[in-house]
Amino acid sequence: MSSETATDVLDITGWTCPAPLRDQPRIVMGHGGGGTLSAELVQHVFAPAYGGKALAQLGDAAALTLGGARLAFSTDSFVVRPLFFPGGSIGDLAVNGTVNDLAMSGARAAYLSCGFILEEGVETRTVSRVAEALGAAARAAGVEVATGDTKVVEAGHGDGVYINTAGIGLIPDGVDLRPQRVVPGDVVIVSGTIGVHGIAIMSVREGLEFGVEIESDCAALGSLVEAMLAVTPDLHVLRDPTRGGLAASLNEIASASGTGVVLTERALPVPAAVAGACAMLGLDPMYVANEGKLVAFVPREHADAVLEAMRAHPLGRESRIIGEAVAEHPGMVVARTALGGTRVVDMPLGEQLPRIC
């Protein structure tokens, strides 16, 4: 007979699945992770309900024509916990995340809107700190907060502060950044080390220590993109690999372009602290979020000059070539390992680290 008592029996009712099944009658955390579940939610719920040609672009920002001008328009919501973390805060994220979405279409951000959703009971001092960080980030990025809104929800129905931002900017003539322009032979460049933001958030959220403090890479990338476009406006596509990490961005581009992507695994710039933390936590750095990096698909004839310009910029000093687009295995991303093998880099189902932005 078992010697278990009532208190020895595991209660699994409160457990959550890190990789939820796709057939979900209810929303699960994975639907917000930027992976397959997020894509299915957009494809089967939102896109059919909204319609419209502009939405069908499904980029980081929509490229629009209005009164003869080419505009980029984007919106994002930020629910990160904790509100303050090494290297930034929810206020920094709210600005830099939206500025970067606009920059990925080649636009320089001009104006932002900002909506605060506050939980009843949050300290006014906390709200002030977030607002000050947001204002400072906007000034640093050269963008103006032009309009806003505030709502308050009952205690227990939020995590202190949520923020929604929307942004608009102008797209320069001759710039056409979209995954459909990717062709075999394009060189894949990443602007620096990956996985830093997600691990920084995890370390403070869970009280983990990795021997060295890991700071978020949160930054506005508009000036880096301008430096790249100054070399040539003929960049094919840019993405900032936030939720779902580098793997999600590369899979989205491969799928939309109908090309394959081959990476050189040893070329991936993973800091030693991030690699160690990921090994400890059982994570793959390619799936961990970034908030101050971009990945670019560049025509081979321009790759060296673009890489040189990126490395001359403070936000691109550690830029490197990590792979290329190929005609083989269209829609699939693979990595050549250090042992000479090849592994498939799948689209993530949900998110390894929820609530990272």
Outline the structure in words:
This protein has 357 residues and is an alpha+beta fold. The chain has two domains: 61-170, 60s Ribosomal Protein L30, Chain: A; 179-344, Phosphoribosyl-aminoimidazole Synthetase, Chain A, domain 2 (Alpha-Beta Complex), CATH 3.90.650.10. The protein is built from eight helices and 14 strands. The strands form three sheets. The protein has a seven-stranded mixed sheet. A hairpin with a 2-residue loop joins strand 1 and strand 2 (69-78). Helix 5 crosses helix 8. The longest helix has 18 residues, at 124-141.
Structural class per helix/strand content? alpha+beta
Can you summarize the main beta sheet? 7 strands, mixed
CATH class (first level) name of the largest domain: Alpha Beta
Share of helical residues: 25-40%
Low-confidence stretches: 1-21
Q: Treating each run of at least 4 consecutive H or I residues as one helix, how many helices?
A: 8
Q: Mind telling me the C-alpha Rg?
A: 21 Å
The total tally of domains equals 2
Termini Cα gap: 50 Å
Number of strands: 14
Order of helices and strands: HEEEEHEHEEEHHEHEHEHEEE
Fraction in beta strands: 15-25%
Strand order of the largest sheet: 9-11-8-12-10-13-14
**Mean pLDDT rating:** 88
